[in-house]
Amino acid sequence: MRAAAEDLISGLTRYYFWSLLAWQDVKQRYRRSMIGPFWLTLSMGVMIGMIGVLYAGLFHQEIGGFLPYVAAGIILWTLISSIITESCATLITAGSLIKQIEIPYSVYIYRMVARNYIVLAHNALIWILVALVFGVAPRWSLVALPFSLLLIAANGVWIGLLLSLLCARFRDIPLIMASLVQVAFFVTPIMWRPGDLPGRSAFVFANPFYHFIELGRGPLLGAFPTLGTWTVTLAVTILGWGITFLFFARFRPRLAYWV
Amino acid sequence: MARIELQGISVTLPIYDAQTRSLKSTIAAIGTGGRLVRGAAERVVVSALDDISVTFEHGDRVALIGHNGAGKTTLLRVLAGTYQPARGRMIREGRATAFFDISAGMEMEATGYENIVIRSLYMGMTLREIRGVFDKVAEFTELGSYLAMPIRTYSLGMMLRLAFSISTSVKPEILLMDEWLSVGDAGFTEKAKQRIDEIIDGSSIMVLASHDLKLIRRICNKALLLSHGQMLAFGSTGEVIMASEAMVS
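Predict the joint structure of the above. Result:
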């Protein structure tokens, strides 16, 4: 228990270490092409534009309201889903280091989460563009955004830790996760609105992904996250951290033998 | 004044195959009591170290000798703190620095300068310590303006120079080595030799796993003979090497 807590805390205090490595990861993408990570931003921008126009037509939505909704949703979903999918490989790829260098394992997890936040900062450009084009003025609700992003990051760390440990032991989990994430994208209100599904509100509100998306999308579109959203996301944070911590404390000594 | 005390250290290495690596097979094995998928429930383990008790004191230059698979690397990993033993306890006073793969953690796409910082951080240095040695490391590499280039463009020799210069910039209290360091091209060798000697002299305890008996006789004052994970002998280099030769014949 103590070793696990020390790992997490001493990893956190080495913020300069994992933020530097996260920057390196992003810079590596810069180096491969002229526009670097903006290549991903560009393709996401195209996707948002296409989906926005297409689904606005399909669902008879007014584009001025629908496209910003889709843009915010996809940007946040990309953050959450890439944290989940990248978690799987995080400790496996660090295997040779884990076997020979004694540094907190959490450093590798913080690095992965930080990397995705740097990519988010790139993708934020899409939002700014969309907001300018469709005249989404910043509202007071934006003050909730930093808290929302912090809460998502806190969840990113426990998910990263839990999944990367599980994936180090069971090598078929990455495949299972990839398909789960795919399904989650379609059942979560990102390309459609919760109101489009009359009479099935439990289907939407029982989905934690919906609340994590709402946590960021609400403030961007001018609404504070509801009490229900805060409750669900905080409960997931506490429960997730509880389970992950026990799991980490139990299996941390085994990790070097798994990778 | 470093000190390492091992008390009854045992390490068992799990051997995983495709079956035990699979969550689906493992669940199927638990659900059916192991009848449906044979193998997933039975974990194969190898005893890599068996009840090792030994103490290394300040000034000890210890050679680990034994055949391939005797447990030398496993013991080094226990000493480095990366392998948690299944049983037993290690009391380690002093910072351990492992020279197993001196380029571990280096990023191919990053420049030489960036890698000095990255690799130093992996070795446990603080930013202040890195600032202190940065210029000296850069100078020692003799790579000049190449340091501003991504190391992906380096030759193998240049890469080794850089890794060597960074890794040896620390003053380790406890130095762990798996085979002797290779130091790249000829022009660099003399300088590197001197640097290694300095580091070994400066260290409090050194543990070296090697097959090179000539090297061991020159460097080490103690030796530990391992065979199939068991410690057969520990004592002065000459005696232990004699014991190992007697075992072979």
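The CA atoms of residues 7 and 89 of chain B lie 5 Å apart.
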